[in-house]
Amino acid sequence: MNNDNRPVFLNLWQIRLPLPGIASILHRISGLLLFFSLPVLLWLLQTSLDSPTGFERVVSMLHHPLAMLSVAALLWSLAHHLLAGIRFLLLDMDVGLDRRASTHSARLVIIAAPLLALLLMWRLYL
Amino acid sequence: MSSGLGGMTAWLAQRISAVYLALFLVFFLLALLFTGSWNYAEWRALMAQPAMITATLLFHISLLLHAWVGVRDVIIDYVHPLPWRLAVLAAVGAALLALAFWGMLILVGLWYS
Asked: What is the pTM of this model?
């Protein structure tokens, strides 16, 4: 069979990724964001535990508007990665594997992650 | 692959570490949600307990193992030329080892304070 002339359709703006696909790609993106933030997080941990002065420094740094934006992005990453990860573990155990259930759970994860991030932001900063 | 982790071992390590990471994070986030404001003394007292240091050490190791398998999967999916793939894998591996060492230094410092 000759497959050389298969049509290729990869217009990213027109492909409609189903919700489970969106949850999955966001799981990857959030995981990478968390990975790249590790050195900063370790530095914050070390400095905050080092001395009262270090602790105050970390607190005031985290109140800078740009830092707050980064914290929000990280908390969303954490929330999405955690919730989507739990969903994947359940799928591994054959829970919610049919199409309707997996679409519902994907929608739930995509909506719940930013809400959880907002809740944590509110608790951290207000 | 250069990791020395076969497909099945990596798959399993990814999921076992995920379960521990999730449990630790849920407890940690709940503590964060239900504690009002933190000061240095409280933060340090929480983190310097031997049980907390042990749990954090396990979290740290699980996290880096989990990150290795996950980032490795992404690299294998997107970086195709073999020399590039090996170079990026090596860089990520070296970075994770450095982070492992750094985190352990922090925890050893807490233990002996």
From this structure: 0.90
